[in-house]
């Protein structure tokens, strides 16, 4: 057999194994895959079928290591594991693989490893007859949820959380997610609906068709080059580039009949999906030098971050087909292109509010609040392109939080007119005005395009009705596809502009965002802005950034506030979960906002000291402030270390008094240098240390934080849950303790 058409893929679990191997072995694997693709039958590879298995083969990586491969079809191979030679042949009957009947994905499990690493090393003698953790569910129920059948007996034997966490590390993705969701108290039906259903295949699965199984999103797999390069670089920060969760993969590749929206809690990979979606769309473009895909977001820093991540994902070739711009920049460019004479100075929101105040002072008007008027002007009047008093009387004010009478509307209208005149006189303009103007210009351009198309159709498709636009080029839509990140923070005018920039067509607009994280007060109903996402909205719910413990606390603090789905309905975080484990956060009672700010600053400062400290004794703090300000001991032994989830690693971390933060921090999370903060979000420092994770001792524990703004009031939330009692571990949101926290946090907003 020659290797011309050999396909070699890598299962994500095998990639994780490779990451842990010594560097020279990784190098040998890299060479191996090249040789294998050239000719799997070359003598040096010693490819052979393993005894008792019809699909499983081994091949030589180097003298010591062997790759285990499933033969999917004649020239199609899947690396499922890379092991030391001595571990391969001893327990061949313990190597299992199958096609999961629920997801249709290929699953590989080494039962011997599970036995040795998960069940055997029980840390301490258990009390007599410990209760199995999953006794409440039958084998059938577990397999219906998608648990790998070969692991069902192992699951039945689990009696401790350590064992469960250990198993999750080795188990196929869905098995881990299902077991943790059940263990964390989710109802069976909820797990079925929120965890299993999104990755289940609708059609019956042929368990013998491995070739078809390898192509399903549930087989988290890549062709090896990219993944191995990441692995050889010694980090797994790049995993997002090659291994998508099945739910993510489906969203990336789906063919949508119109605009689509992906929601989901913080850290669920929405941006990752947006980036992969961009690549997917670009791969389907005809060859060319233009940039028919727009990737946009709401500010400059995020746009710069998107650029660097897209570069990491697809290199210059991908970047060369994508326009990356933040929406305000896009709007400004549009306005300047159409009105080159418009050189008004741009004032930011704070300056605009100051102008409102000056206007009210000059008029001796004290019945109105400057901020309220500014919001009304930007969100309702500019936001809906209201051009007359009569239209303003009819304008929708959804999300404005307070009703205004007809007489009040008349007053507001008059003030808004005066305000616009004032800005004009001063020779300044706001970003909202620019966005609104850009939306009008683009809508006009879209109407002209549609007009040309209509006339072309009437002329029997003849191409004689081209009309040059102002710049002398052919008039056409600016982009073929538009992808928007952090969609929750765009203004109505932005949406109108974007809508007009691409033809209403398949896969025209793809938006990702989470209204729980909205920081501006731009509540929109996309349907009313010409963007119909009905039937094309989906949600991601597995957090890659936050531990289960932090997530549970953060959800408690979120409380009973309601959030919109960008389209007039409610959005929830139902199903939001994590498979990462870490320390249990503590809530701290704080008197007021200044105290809270000070506490946060002290906490962050203490992290900095801890990382550089050389003093020997552990801290013995007395008050919370002292605790957070405490000088770390001199041992230099305290150093935050990225600790992987797993019982043994947790024990090792505890020896150093390090609060275990299971979540490893993705390299790219430094992008949130803007106004965002909080546990659920995960800033670099916060994520590295765990939001609120403190360096020493039980007294110093993580403090969950919340972020975003109240949907109705738009007020920023308090970072720490203050005036709140700690929520007892396992307390339900409905319990008195849980409600206490919720009320307190919501009330503080
Ligand atoms: N499939 C994946 N494999 C590995 N890591 C992933 C995957 N998907 C997401 N991540 C990691 O999770 C982190 C969060 O991803 P991302 O920024 O896309 O989340 P998000 O939902 O957009 O977050 P936010 O709501 O805060 O904007 C990233 O650092 C990324 O590396």
From TrEMBL:
- Which molecular-function annotations from GO does this UniProt entry contain? 3'-5' DNA helicase activity; ATP binding; DNA binding; exonuclease activity
Q: Which domain of life is it from?
A: Bacteria
Q: Which UniProt keywords apply?
A: ATP-binding, Exonuclease, Helicase, Hydrolase, Nuclease, Nucleotide-binding
| Annotated Basic and acidic residues bias | 666-677
The protein's matches in SUPFAM superfamilies, at most eight in alphabetical order, are given as:
P-loop containing nucleoside triphosphate hydrolases, RelE-like
Q: Which GO terms describe its cellular component?
A: cytosol
Annotated spans, Disordered: 642-749
Q: Which residues form the UvrD-like helicase ATP-binding domain?
A: 243-554
Pfam families cross-referenced by the UniProt entry? UvrD-helicase (PF00580)
Instruction: Give the record's GO biological process terms.
Output: recombinational repair
Q: Bias regions of kind Basic residues — which residues? A: 646-655
Instruction: Report biased composition (Low complexity) as residue ranges.
Output: 679-697
* PROSITE patterns tied to this protein: UVRD_HELICASE_ATP_BIND (PS51198)
Which parts of the sequence bind ATP? 264-271
- InterPro entries, per database record: DNA_helicase_UvrD/REP, P-loop_NTPase, RelE/ParE_toxin_dom_sf, UvrD-like_ATP-bd
Q: Provide the protein name.
A: 3'-5' exonuclease
